[in-house]
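User: Hi! I'm working on a homework problem where we have to compare a predicted structure to a textbook description. Could you give me the structure for the chain below?
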Amino acid sequence: MVEQEIGRPLRRGEHVHHINAIKTDNRPENLHLFATVREHSQAHGSLNVLLDQLLRERVIEFVASEGRYRWSRIT
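Assistant: Happy to help. Predicted structure tokens:
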């Protein structure tokens, strides 16, 4: 899919990132091409930083009994 958008095959080392984290969602607007694994890893790392902040600020919470994250119910 990305290859069609950029008009060439992917080069060795290039990585396709699914912005919404749904790997089956190959719409062009959901894909970003990184030149290296390192750049791709940095993108995921930035998401983890945001997750940490959202948990600390109690915007989201992990519900162990459900095994998933959800929006907090802070009023």
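For your comparison, note the following. Residues 2-71 form one domain. The chain has one domain: 2-71. Good luck with the assignment!
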